[in-house]
Structures are given as C-alpha cells and as structure tokens.
Specification:
Layout: E1 2-7, H1 12-16, H2 18-26, E2 30-37, H3 48-65, E3 69-75, H4 85-98, E4 102-105, H5 113-129, E5 146-149, E6 161-164, H6 169-177, H7 180-189, H8 194-209, E7 214-219
Parallel strand pairs: 1-2, 1-4, 2-3, 4-5
Antiparallel strand pairs: 5-7, 6-7
Helix pairs in contact: 3-6, 4-5, 6-8
Bound molecules: zinc ion.
C-alpha cells in the first residue's frame, strides 16, 4: 500500500502521526510525507530565509530515520490559502505523482489557519486529482480514504480510530527531536519541553484505547472514501 501524509509545517507530521507512519513502514508499506510550508516563520530570532533551509533539512533528517521519503511544497508560513488554485494544483501534482492508497492530513478544526487551510486543500485537491480532464499531464489519482490526524494537544478532537504506537513511540520522539530549531527554542525560552508534550498526548490517547501509546484519527466520511476494511495499521 502507498501511504501519503500531508502536513503543514515541517514538524506537524512528527507531532501527530509519525508513530503511525513508522508502523506502516515496519509493515512493509511505502510512505511519503509532503510538507506544504517550509516553516520559515517558526522562530523569533532566526530570519525566514535561513530558517527555511534549516527546517527543510530537519524534516528530511526526521523522515530518513523511519525510511520515509520527504517532499516539500516550499510555501511560506501563514500564506496558505485553500482557495489559491496554484496551491491546490501543487497538491494535485503530489497526489498524482505519489498515487496514494490512503492519505493522512490535518483535521479541519485544528488550531491555526495554515493547518485548517491544508486540511481543505488536501480534501479539494484529492477530488480534483481524480478528474481525468483537470490539469491534464500526470495520470489521474484515485479517490482514496482520508484520515484526519489529532489536533494540537488533542483539543476539540473526538477520535474514531486509534493506532497503537507503543512500538514506534521512541522513534517518533527521535524524529521530533530532529526539529532542533523548534524544540531547542521552546526549551530555552518558553520552558516548554515539546517532546514531553507530544509524548503526553500519545499516552493520553493510549489510555483511551487500552494501550501504552496511541495516535488518534477521524475518518473523512464522504462518498466514496469509505471502505469496508481497516486502512490504518
Ligand atoms: Zn504546524
């Protein structure tokens, strides 16, 4: 199976679904991650052009730890708009290149505008990518199940699916720690241990479904994206 995770900022996938993606990999599936933005506004002191390069490198390093292919659409932070046709077409191109069997992306009710815009972009692009006569060129991609990953800190998110990530939690945290530009700043200046934050959320989701650590999802239940089998690992 081909799995495509589409996150907004370069560390979002690690926060919400890296344990699941690593589990897919362990089971022999092919996994690609696409970051929509380059994360260039994610620091107070490091200026955007320098941060852009750092964050693209951090994301590649994180993906490599799990054997995951990483691509970026390299859009700037805070200029993601679901109504922007160029941005939608960029997502269409990734979908057609990757031809995924399942897509994981942000929940429509996540905490900030880039995330909610990516959620909508993916939903819209996934339909457009399936239409043979839309942007002819690459072969059309099938309409696939979409799973929405947990919101930040799980706020306002009622999971319908859980993935046991007890076997991949340490790898997930290791991947998260690759995002030095984010974690170091938060530890030094905000007194926030983001790795502990993420581990706590995974433990909480684990508690809900009776395992040590879990990641939580909801299915995008629209025709014809529902399938009579489990797609998550
Ligand atoms: Zn983000």
């Amino acid at each position: 199976m081909k799995v495509l995770g589409i996150g907004c900022h370069p560390d979002d996938i690690e926060v919400a679904c890296a344990g699941t993606l690593a589990k897919y990999k362990k089971l022999g599936h092919e996994v690609t991650v696409c970051h929509v933005t380059n994360g260039d506004m994610g620091h107070v002191e490091i200026m955007p052009p320098e941060l852009r390069e750092m964050r693209i490198a951090e994301a590649k390093k994180a993906g490599a730890l799990a054997g995951i292919k990483v691509v970026t659409l390299d859009i700037g932070d805070l200029v993601v708009y679901s109504s922007d046709r160029k941005q939608r077409d960029a997502v269409v191109e990734v979908l057609r290149q990757e031809q995924p069997d399942v897509i994981i992306t942000h929940s429509p009710n996540d905490y900030m505008p880039d995330h909610t815009a990516v959620s909508r972009l993916v939903f819209d692009a996934s339909f457009a990518a399936s239409c043979l006569h839309y942007n002819q060129g690459l072969p059309a991609a099938p309409i696939t199940p979409i799973y929405y990953m947990d919101t930040l800190a799980g706020v306002g998110f009622m999971p319908t699916e859980y993935v046991d990530i007890s076997d991949t939690i340490e790898l997930k945290i290791e991947m998260l720690e690759c995002h030095v530009s984010q974690l170091k700043w938060m530890r030094d200046h905000d007194n926030i241990d983001f790795a502990e934050f993420v581990r706590t959320c995974a433990r909480f989701r684990g508690l809900q479904c009776g395992v040590q650590y879990a990641e939580a999802f909801t299915a995008c239940n629209v025709w014809p994206r529902m399938v009579p089998k489990r797609m998550l690992p």
